[in-house]
């Protein structure tokens, strides 16, 4: 999931920079540009973690495709929707760092995890690069319009909902996925009318 979510993620931030709303906001525009460049290698990091576990990425989950479709369709006209989603994603890591440390301490059932296959997780606990704090600081330095503020909130809410759906899929607890997996029946083929 994380591989597909982050593969090409810089596109969102580099694309939004052309929006006229960033005119006169050079410092914030520079922040978004640098953020895009820092996020760019994360898909490769997720891929290397999978390879270190002897795995390949699964096909792109539907919810990841929906994420990309939704934000791709809005990023040029309403960039603060995607910034709101980034705000949520980058602040989730801080909230899960205790769980992450528990997984990595080697005493749990996850003893197969090690430094070679958890780089993505470690980076996203944000102890090395606190992107969540950086987004908050960057946003606090600009005057937001009412629409930009509303888009930030909407993007954060929608981003959280979509991400939690993806997490349910990744953990195998998505109720729809479970319902459809339980019905592995093949639909009967329609019988052809006889040629009489």
Sequence-ordered SSE layout with sheet pairings:
Layout: H1 2-6, H2 10-16, H3 26-39, H4 42-52, H5 62-74, H6 79-104, H7 119-124, H8 131-140, H9 146-171, H10 175-182
Helix pairs in contact: 2-3, 5-9, 6-8, 6-9
Question: What features would you highlight for this structure?
Answer:
globular, 10 helices, Heme Oxygenase, Chain A
Residue ranges: pLDDT <50 for 5 or more in a row?
186-196
The biggest beta sheet, please?
Answer: none
Q: Count of helices?
A: 10
CATH H-level superfamily: Heme oxygenase-like
Give the fraction of residues assigned to helices. Answer: 55-70%
Per CATH, the architecture is Up-down Bundle
CATH topology: Heme Oxygenase, Chain A
Overall pLDDT: 84
C-alpha geometry: globular
- Name of the CATH class: Mainly Alpha
Alpha-beta content class: mainly alpha
Rg, Å, rounded: 20 Å
Count the beta strands.
Answer: 0
How much strand content do the residues show? Answer: under 5%
Report how far apart the termini are. 53 Å
Secondary-structure element series: HHHHHHHHHH
Q: Please tell me the total number of domains.
A: 1
Task: Describe, in short, the structure shown.
By secondary structure, the chain is an all-alpha fold.
Would you mind describing this structure in some detail?
The protein has 196 residues and is an all-alpha fold. Helices cover 64% and strands 0% of the residues. It has helices at 2-6, 10-16, 26-39, 42-52, 62-74, 79-104, 119-124, 131-140, 146-171, 175-182. Helix 2 packs antiparallel against helix 3 (26-39) and helix 6 runs antiparallel to helix 8 (131-140). The longest helix has 26 residues, at 79-104.
């Amino acid at each position: 999931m994380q591989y597909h979510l982050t593969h090409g993620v810089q596109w969102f931030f580099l694309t939004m920079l052309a929006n006229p709303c960033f005119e006169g906001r050079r410092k914030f525009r520079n922040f978004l540009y640098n953020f895009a460049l820092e996020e760019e290698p994360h898909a490769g990091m997720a891929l290397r973690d999978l390879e270190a576990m002897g795995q390949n990425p699964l096909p792109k989950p539907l919810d990841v495709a929906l994420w990309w479709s939704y934000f791709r369709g809005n990023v040029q006209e309403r960039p603060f929707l995607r910034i709101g989603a980034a705000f949520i994603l980058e602040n989730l890591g801080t909230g899960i760092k205790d769980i992450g440390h528990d997984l990595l301490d080697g005493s749990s059932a996850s003893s197969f995890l090690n430094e070679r296959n958890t780089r993505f997780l470690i980076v996203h606990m944000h102890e090395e690069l606190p992107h969540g704090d950086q987004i908050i600081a960057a946003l606090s330095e600009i005057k937001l319009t009412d629409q930009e503020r509303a888009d930030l909130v909407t993007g954060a809410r929608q981003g959280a909902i979509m991400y939690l759906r993806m997490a349910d899929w990744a953990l195998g607890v998505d109720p729809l996925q479970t319902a459809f997996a339980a019905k592995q029946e093949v639909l009967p083929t329609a019988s052809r009318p006889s040629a009489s």
